[in-house]
Structure formats: C-alpha cells, structure tokens
Write a structure and sequence with these properties.
With 628 residues, the chain is α+β, with helices and mostly antiparallel strands. A hairpin with a 2-residue loop joins strand 15 and strand 16. 52% of the residues lie in helices and 21% in strands.
Length: 628
C-alpha cells in the first residue's frame, strides 16, 4: 500500500514539473527552459547512538505521614487494670501509659520460681555429690599409688638382700658358724620387717575398701528412698510416699509391678545387709536393678495434674543420678576389693620370700657347720633363692602397677561422669533461668510505657477490657517528625537501597526503610523516605523521583523497546548507512522498564532509529534524523 502511495506521489511531482516547463516555454518564447531537479522525500526519525550500561529512573506519587508513630499492642492475654492517659495528652519517653494484669503470667511466674529454686538446689546437690564421688576415686588412686611405691621400696630391699645373700654365699663359702648365724639373724630381722610392712599395706587396702563400701551404702540409701517415694513398697523408706504412686506408670502397668517387686527385694536386702564385701556387693546389684526398673516406669509415665512435667523430670533426673552413683560405687568397691586381693597376694609372696630366706639361712648355718672349702650346698641354695626372689618381686610389682592403672581409669571415668552430671544440672538451671528471665520480661511488658515523646493519638481500650496478644492498646505520634511513604512494584524495589537519595519535588530525601515483603492486596512494597524539607504537611501527596542505585553492568547494551521490530520470530532494528536504513538482526535479553538488553547484533556507538521507524519497510530508505 505504501509503495502505491509512493508511485502516486512521484506521478504528481512529474506532472507538476511538466506544467512548470510549459509555462516557462510559453511565457518566454524561444528562451531555453531551465531544468528543475525533483525533490527526494526523506522520513523524519529520531536516532540514538547506543552506549553501554543502563541509567534507569522512575517517578512515584507518595503520601506524607507523621514520621515517628507507634502502636503499642498487648503481648499476652491480660486485662486492663489502669489507664493513665487520654487521647490528646502529651507524654514523655518512658512515661507509664497504662497497666495490665495477667493471671496466667502470675501463675507461670510462681511455678517457674519454684522450678528455679529446685534447679538451683539440684545443681548444688549434683556438684556436692559429684565432688564427693570424684574425691573417693582420687583417694583410691592415691592408695594404689602408695601401695605401688611401698612395693617398689620393699622390692628394692628384698632384691638387695637377695643379692647380698648370693654374693655372701659365693664369696664366703668358708664362713664360720658365727657368720652363718649372723646371716640367719639378719634373715629373721628381714622377715619381721616384711611382716610389719605387709600389715601396713593390707591395712591401707582394707581402709580403701571400707571407705568405698561406706560411700556406696549412702548412695544406695538415697536411691532407695527416692524410688520408695514414688512406688511406696516399704514403710522404712517413706519420705513423701504416696503422693505420686497412682500417677506413676499408667502406660506400663507390667513394668510398674516389676519395679515394685525389684524395689522390695532391694530394700529387704539393704535392711539385712552386713559389712562384708559380698553382702554389700550383692545388695548394690539388687539396688541397681531396682533403680533401673524405676527409671523405666518413669519413662512410661505421662505428666498429669497431680504430677507436673517439672516434678516428673526432677524425679527422672534424681533416679538417673542415683543409678549412676550406685553403678560407680559398685565399680569402686570391685576395684578396691581387687586392690586388697592384690595386696594380700603380694604380701604373701614377699612373706614367703622372707621366710624362705630364713629357711635358707638356717640351712646355710647347718651346711656351714658340715662343709667348708668347696662350693657348699648353701651357695647352690642361695642362687636358686635369688632367682625365685626376683620372680616374686616382678610379680608383686606388676600387680601393684595394674592396681594403679585400674584406679586411675576409675578416677578418670568418675571425673567424666561427674562432669556430665554437673553439666546436665547446669544446663537445666540455665534453661530454667532463661524461662524465668522471659516471664519476668513479659511481666514487665504489662506496664506500657511511651517509647518516645509525643502525643497520644488513640486509646482503643477501656478499663477492665480483656485483651489478646496483638490487640492495640495505645497509639503515640510525634508531630514534629515527617516521612514520605511510597508503594513501588517488585521490578523497581530491587533497583533501590536504604540510604539512596531521591528528589521530592524541588527538595531531597533519603530512603530509610524498605519493606521486606509486598502488601498482600496491592503486591507492592512500602518505601519510607526521610525528607529534608520542613514545608511538607501530613496527608500531602508528593512526587518522588528515584534513580537506580545499582546500575547494570557497564558492558551490557540496552535500547528503547520502540526501536525493536518483530517479523515472525526475528527481531531487528534499523541502523543507518549514509542516512539510509539498514536492517540489523538482534538477539534480545532482559527487559528493564522501557528498555531491553541486546545480547548480540549491536556494539556500542552504533546509531539506530529509536522512534519513527515503524512506517519503514525496506532497507535503503532515506531518513532525516531530527532532535529529541
């Protein structure tokens, strides 16, 4: 169609030229007609030289609001018990505006205070019990180390004596009867010393076992007493028995019966227990079973009105600690009993050695009386006795070292167990303290104070009202401060940042906040701006000019969407070659407002037609660039 109009236009121009020639010819006679060149039509267009990067700006209408405003909501269910202000009152920061009361918070505060006191007591008890347990194991270790030291000293004496006896036998085969008698006397003195040292070592070991059994008895009594408070199987261990018996083990009746039976057996064994190791060890194993069964029943117990979760947790922790202490005590008396056995065995060996020396000395005396000059039977016996003594000394030392290693391991295990118990009690205390701090903070928030100086603009509650979390209580505004609020789209919100400078009419402002999420209805983001001008009024509408704070990469090319032409699935722009159109195929990318990214096809500096190219259909068409 446009080609048709072009042909008509050329025909009209041709007819006009012929008419002009005719007029000139007829008017001037034979004068030569002047030649007139036809005018060539050029399309007016707006052109653009492409540059790297994108400088994006946009304008939004905003609303001027009071800059400092706060609506103080209730943070818990409560009732309004005192109102100290009314709308229009001027208040200062920190002034009390109204007071609330919450029965549930008061109850929680009292319960938490009780829990905190229990946790503090439990922590102190755990520290004390754990310290005592570790101290007992440390004493056991020191006893074993002392026993080892005594054994080594004793072995050195015996070894020296054996060596002296051997050398004496080898070098003094011709000793007189008096010398042999002296050797016998020395052996007898050594035997007496050995007996005294052995008695001291055995006494140390027995004292260690007695201390361990005494500590274990205390742990068993405490554990049985706590378990009987829950299950009430014996009148001898009552405590506060009967308070929680019906609440225990409702989901595990079979386990409860088993626990009651094993607890009865343990209590009877404890009552009948004597001071022997076997009796204490057997009773402790029964107490261990009873406490383990009681702990199992507690795990089948649910919190109830008669037994709160805090009380149930406290008993679980108490039974667990008693069970750990009893098990540690069993390990302790087993270690102490083994140390006693080792000491007795070592004593027997050293005593046998000393007695053997006396016997050897007696035989040497008899042999000396019978033999002189050649290698006597005394020397032969002394060599055998020396070898036997060395073997006995090595065995005694090995046993003493093994006892020390066992005691050290038991001490380290006790420290670890004690540390874990203290840490657990400390964590429970800290958790309860945190809960107390939270409730205290919530109670403090029942007193509503002014967050800043200003004017009470609204008081939507009345005295005696019941309020829920989130219920507005009082609204305060500071009329001396202003802010401009605008709502912008998701595509634009990513272009700005807090701290950006904007234009508000002829004045400036600064972006102070950007909403993290869009409004549910408008799908736009609220932007707050602090204006520099004091001439604005609340409720006034103003134009806000934004400029992108984070421009696109300088290497990218963006062109106006009006410059892009689409034919089928092909995109192109009109370039210029000596003011004539030249088609340039482009590959488009990201859309940014009224501009689109060019991925390939163009380079920076290329001049293209930005507007006016829609009516051009062919390449080579003459155009006339005009100013924007």
């Amino acid at each position: 169609m446009k080609n048709h109009y072009r042909a008509i236009l050329i025909s009209v121009l041709a007819i006009s030229i012929v008419g002009v020639i005719f007029v000139v010819y007829t008017g001037q006679g034979k004068e030569q007609v002047a030649e007139v060149e036809p005018e060539i039509f050029a399309y007016p267009v707006k052109t653009l030289a492409i540059q790297n990067g994108l400088d994006y700006s946009f304008t939004i209408t905003g609303n001027v609001n009071v800059g400092q405003s706060a609506t103080m909501p209730a943070e818990s269910r409560a009732s309004v018990v005192e109102i100290l202000v009314k709308p229009g009152d001027t208040v200062n920061q920190g002034d009390v505006l109204l007071r609330l009361n919450s029965d549930s918070l008061d109850t929680s505060y009292q319960n938490t205070a009780i829990m905190l006191a229990n946790a503090q007591l439990s922590f102190a008890t755990t520290q004390s019990v754990s310290g005592n347990s570790s101290e007992i194991e440390r004493l056991r270790m020191e006893t074993a180390e002392m026993n080892l030291k005594n054994t080594l000293m004793q072995n050195e004496i015996l070894k020296s004596q054996s060596e002296q006896a051997l050398e004496s036998a080898k070098l003094n085969v011709d000793l007189s009867t008096d010398s042999a008698a002296s050797g016998l006397e020395s052996a007898k003195n050594n035997l007496e010393k050995t007996k005294n040292l052995n008695a001291a070592n055995e006494q140390v070991a027995r004292t260690g076992l007695a201390n361990a059994m005494r500590s274990l008895k205390t742990d068993m009594f405490n554990g049985l007493n706590t378990a009987n408070e829950l299950l009430e199987v014996s009148s001898l261990f009552r405590g506060s028995a009967g308070l929680y018996k019906d609440a225990i083990g409702r989901r595990g009746e079979t386990e409860k019966r088993e626990a009651e039976a094993s607890l009865k057996v343990a209590i009877d064994a404890y009552i009948a227990m004597d001071d022997s190791y076997e009796s204490v060890h057997d009773t402790a194993k029964k107490v261990e079973t009873a406490l383990d069964d009681t702990l199992a029943v507690l795990n089948y117990t649910d919190a109830s009105y008669s037994m709160s979760q805090q009380i149930l947790s406290g008993y679980i922790q108490s039974i667990s600690q008693s069970l750990a202490m009893v098990r540690g005590g069993i390990s302790g008396i087993e270690s102490a009993n083994q140390s006693l056995k080792t000491t007795i065995a070592a004593n027997a060996a050293t005593l046998a050695g000393a007695q053997a020396q006396v016997t050897a000395a007696e035989k040497a005396l008899a042999s000396t009386k019978q033999q002189q000059g050649d290698k006597s039977q005394t020397v032969i016996n002394a060599e055998k006795q020396y070898e036997a003594t060395l073997a006995q000394l090595k065995n005694a030392e090995d046993n003493a070292r093994a006892s020390v290693n066992t005691a050290k391991l038991s001490y380290e295990n006790s420290k670890k167990s004690s540390n874990l118990s203290v840490i657990s009690a400390k964590n429970a205390l800290l958790t309860t303290q945190d809960a107390m701090d939270q409730i205290t903070l919530q109670r403090e928030k029942l007193i509503v104070r002014a967050p800043f100086s200003g004017v009470v603009s609204a008081l939507p509650v009345n005295l005696g009202d019941e309020v829920n979390p989130g219920t507005p209580l009082v609204v305060i505004e500071n009329p001396d401060t202003l802010k401009v609020v605008v709502m912008i789209t998701e595509s634009d919100v990513n272009r700005i940042a807090v701290g950006d400078k904007v234009a508000i009419g002829s004045a400036n402002g600064t972006v102070v906040s950007i909403a993290p999420s869009a409004d549910a209805q408008t799908k736009k983001f609220a932007i707050e701006i602090l204006p520099e001008s004091k001439d604005l009024k609340p409720g006034q509408f103003v134009k806000v000019d934004f400029k992108e704070s984070n421009p696109k990469n300088d290497e990218k090319l963006f062109i106006p969407i009006s410059a892009v032409h689409l034919v089928g699935d092909q995109s192109f722009v009109w370039g210029l070659n000596e003011n004539k159109t030249q088609k340039i195929v482009v590959n488009l990318g990201e859309l940014q407002g009224d501009r689109v990214e060019v991925l390939d096809g163009l380079i920076a500096g290329t001049e293209i037609i930005a507007q006016g190219g829609r009516i051009i259909e062919d390449e080579g068409v003459l155009v006339q660039p005009i100013e924007w």
